[in-house]
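cache lookup: miss for this entity combination. No prior model stored, computing from scratch. Input as submitted by user K.M.:
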Amino acid sequence: MEISNSRIAKILRDVAASYIIKNIGNIFQVRAYENAADSVEHSTTEVQDLWEEGRLEEIPALGEKIRSYLDELFKTGKVSHFAEIKKDIPEVVFELLDIPGIGPKLAQKIADLGIKSIEDLEIQIKTGSLVQKGFSAKLAQNIMEGLREVKNRGKRMLLPYAFVQAEKVVAYLKQSQDVIDVHPLGSLRRMVATVGDLDFSVSSNNNEKVVDYFCKMPGVSRVLDKGSYKATVALKSGIQLDLLVGEPNSYGALLQHFTGSKSHNIKLRELANQMGYSLSEYGVKRVEDGKIIQTKTEDEFYKLLGMRTPLPEIREDTGEIEAALRQAQGKLPGLPKLVESKNIKGDLHLHSNFPIKSPSHGPGGDTIEDIVKKARALNYEFVGIADHSPGFSTNSPQEIIKWVKERTNFIRELQKRTKSIRILNGLEIDILGNGSLSIPDEALVYLDYCIAGIHSGHRGTKEIITKRLLNALNNPYVDIVSHPTNRLLNERDSSDADWPQIFQAAAKNNKLLEINAFPNRLDLRDDLVRLALKSGVKLVVNTDAHQIEQMGNMLFGVAQARRGWATAKDIVNTWDWKNFAKWFNM
DNA sequence: GCCGTTTTCGGCCCGACTGTTTTCAGTCG
């Protein structure tokens, strides 16, 4: 029985909470468990898999002690030390910890009242029973709001949706004459695939006015927190917004602080301590005299620490701080020169409404001509139409070949009339359950390129998924594997597969893996992009647009490439035509 | 409990907000 990373993290957090409740050990032992929990949660491979391979030491913040506890956990399903620590603490305490505003101490206090469940707690607040038992009305109210928040806590927003919501808030804030500058920060600025809350910084000399103005924004349903420099509000839509206001002279420190990530900031502050500095959103403080050196820009902030500014997308404490230090010292390897949207010269995964008999996954909504027109408007040098093909279940091999021929002729004719852009003839075909492709090889010879993807049986075992992908990567007609993990954000987890083996095969056979920019895919994921690059795999960023409007999603795919430390040379659709055509043997 | 180009001992990120604390504990980001 596999124990998930999030389950392991919860177990470790419960131990940390138990230490606090029972007042065992010191705060640093508690933090050690919390750090271990964070580290497990951020791990991009299953910790139990690493344990089976004897590689648990690769997870930071897991020392000798906790590793031995995990050893026991994976072998027996429980840890006697943890059971001992958690003894006499009611189970409801650990459930209550999931409610915002309730920490270990308060959870224990609630359990001490004899409350056995979250439902029970809710009833006791509503009936006034909690207040009768000695809780203040304000505290009861706070808990109630926390409970409501848990219930309303929707899924995380998809990045493009978060983008649009943030633009509205920025537009509102800019209307205030007290606002000098405003930026969306946090996970949105780091371009994480999904975003929880929306964070904003404002540069202003009139902080309290800005905070007031923010709290009065149309659509705000509740003000959750309000201070002189910050506020948190909930919108009627359920989205939570955080605002932090700073003075222009220290705005660089504010940007840095609120962009995160948390682990990046912690690593940075530890480093600063060693240099005799203390960091905060107000600037860089010299510990010896307590003087704060204000930083107007992020570059000034990072420069004081002796490093180049790492781009927001890679601020995850996965080596970027060390690289930024080396870069400033003229040592290698420095920071990567990340690929940019403007480097993109074409999109190879576009679905048209070209007539098709029983398409396997539904056609796109626009004509090939309109797609080509849109591609020209985006200043692309080439555009690849990659419709789904008819399959064997409803068509004979001869019918499929005939359809591919007709479509090929149509595209060739269109190219003759179109001089300003190269139109490539592709298809997106299925990798079937046995690893074979959904159309005959005799049809594939007509194509400029072939994208293969798994569109069924995503929940197969690791062995089966790996085998299907390897089969596709070993097929001479396949050029690209689309959306390799097949995750659907908020809906379906990534398929389980032996990624190192898959990346080795892709590199060896010169196959491309796709970074699919469709909002709920963003697949290949950022962490796997980085792993793939280390194996020498080349990538292609495609939008998988089914309507021409969706061709504008390219920047979100590029963002995932950037989060995976990709440079333009790693992404073939940034290459000039000569090199691009050479890769595809066109 | 973890960790190491000043350390295998002695440190461990920083600050805001809330409540009822008259100087601080708990919680959060």
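stored under new cache key. Chain A has four domains: 5-152, 157-246, 254-328, 341-584.
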